[in-house]
């Protein structure tokens, strides 16, 4: 199969597990004999003169990656005047580039990943070309940016074409100009007023996310739930082969440093533990501390200093994903304290494979992992409950070991990348057999 994957971010420039899994799947499909091409944004590339992003085409893990699209969700975003004209030209350029790739690569199937910040002009185009497409959903980006019928995506374009922008005195002139511009775009076959998104299949990484989308008015005729996978061979470390430090519990927080990820809850929990227990804890924090994360990081550091816990908390900074297996293997317990709408947290499964016990809030799809592996679940934001749980695990190291063993067993059985790729290949092949007739402008 020729598979075109589209994602807003792609390693080595990424924020979380959604993009990491996208790369793992792309490389696994390429190794399986398919021809995979990735289209992603220019995020992470240097900005040159006039703030024009440089473009890059590169080979990563045997996969061709085109960094061509613009991304409105992540900076740097420079002020432009007039902004509306700039944004229209940028989104149209991305749509035209996408059409060029369809004509050049001629994929058998299009696989959408995270489209947060990417123009939604792309979404109706596979149907126009008669190419089956499938969404892999790990985040509610479609709820946030598309809407039940595409109304959130089309709002901007309706205002543009109706001339509902700019100084009032020039709006009549703008309307005449934009009507001409809209007619020209329509002749290219690019939909801008209506955004029909009728994919062949929508695949959710957890039942929680499918329910969330349905509640947001996005109930697709064909949808299913498939658990995401993790490359077991990279992370696996038998629990029996780990080397614990007698009398000490090495605790890991891994993820972005934002309030909805809950690091402050862990800090407060340590402060609420009895001193003899707290002295036996070593907390490592693996996550970015610069840029958008700086303010929250400084707030947490101040609180650590107020509680006099500087010697038991270590900040590792942002750790490259390739180094995370060693980080997991040098810890006994992962605390996953998110309060946000999680898809199926990659970090939990990676830690379980590496022989870590896991304590979680079970937020979003995290509860589906917790229920399968019978993990301890604590209330969101409840630092006292977490403190008592940590004290209990210090008192009962055998319980900690048992949690690690049963979590590892479930991770190997349910969440391996090999298992995921086997199912995903079958899904893509079935979609390819259901090729649609092109609508309007499309294949020759």
TrEMBL record:
Keywords associated with the record: Glycosyltransferase, Transferase
CDD domains documented for this protein: GT4_PimA-like
Occurrences of domain Glycosyl transferase family (ranges): 250-408
Domain of life: Bacteria
Residue span(s) of domain Glycosyltransferase subfamily 4-like N-terminal: 16-230
GO MF annotation terms: glycosyltransferase activity
Pfam families: Glyco_transf_4 (PF13439), Glycos_transf_1 (PF00534)
PANTHER family in alphabetical order: COLANIC ACID BIOSYNTHESIS GLYCOSYLTRANSFERASE WCAL-RELATED, GLYCOSYLTRANSFERASE
Family indicated by similarity: Belongs to the glycosyltransferase group 1 family. Glycosyltransferase 4 subfamily.
Name the UniProt record assigns to this protein: Glycosyl transferase, group 1
């Amino acid at each position: 199969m020729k598979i075109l994957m589209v994602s807003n971010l792609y390693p080595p420039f990424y924020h979380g597990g959604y993009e990491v899994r996208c790369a793992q799947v792309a490389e696994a499909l390429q190794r399986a004999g398919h021809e995979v091409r990735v289209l992603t944004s220019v995020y992470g590339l240097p900005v040159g003169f006039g703030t024009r992003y440089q473009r890059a085409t590169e080979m990563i893990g045997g996969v061709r990656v085109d960094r061509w699209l613009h991304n409105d969700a992540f900076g740097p975003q420079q002020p432009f005047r007039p902004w509306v004209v700039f944004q229209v030209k940028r989104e149209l350029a991305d749509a035209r580039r996408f059409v060029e790739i369809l004509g050049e690569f001629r994929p058998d199937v299009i696989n959408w990943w995270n489209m947060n910040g990417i123009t939604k002009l792309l979404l109706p185009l596979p149907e126009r070309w008669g190419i089956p497409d499938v969404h892999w959903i790990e985040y509610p980006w479609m709820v946030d940016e598309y809407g039940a019928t595409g109304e959130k995506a089309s709002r901007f374009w309706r205002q543009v074409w109706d001339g509902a922008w700019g100084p009032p005195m020039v709006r009549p002139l703008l309307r005449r100009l934009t009507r001409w511009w809209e007619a020209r775009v329509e002749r290219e076959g690019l939909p801008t007023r209506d955004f029909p998104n009728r994919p062949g299949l929508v695949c959710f990484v957890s039942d929680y996310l499918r329910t969330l989308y349905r509640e947001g008015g996005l109930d697709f005729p064909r949808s299913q739930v498939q658990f995401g996978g993790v490359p077991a061979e990279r992370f696996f470390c038998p629990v029996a082969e780990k080397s614990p430090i007698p009398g000490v519990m090495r605790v890991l927080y891994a993820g972005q440093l934002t309030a909805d990820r809950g690091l402050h809850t862990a800090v407060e929990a340590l402060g609420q533990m009895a001193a003899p227990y707290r002295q036996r804890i070593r907390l490592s924090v693996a996550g970015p501390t610069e840029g958008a994360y700086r303010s929250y990081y400084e707030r947490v550091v101040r609180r650590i200093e107020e509680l006099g816990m500087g010697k038991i908390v270590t900040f590792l900074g942002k750790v490259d994903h390739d180094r995370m297996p060693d980080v997991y293997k040098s810890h006994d317990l992962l605390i996953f304290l998110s309060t946000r709408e999680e898809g199926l947290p990659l970090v939990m499964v990676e830690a379980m494979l590496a022989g870590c016990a896991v304590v979680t809030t079970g937020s979003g799809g995290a509860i589906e992992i917790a229920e399968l592996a019978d993990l301890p679940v604590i209330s969101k934001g409840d630092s006292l409950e977490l403190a008592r749980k940590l004290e209990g695990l210090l008192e009962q190291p055998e319980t900690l070991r048992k949690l690690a063993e049963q979590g590892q067993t479930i991770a190997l059985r349910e969440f391996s990348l090999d298992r995921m790729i086997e199912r995903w290949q079958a899904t893509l092949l079935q979609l390819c057999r259901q090729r649609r007739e092109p609508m309007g402008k499309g294949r020759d």
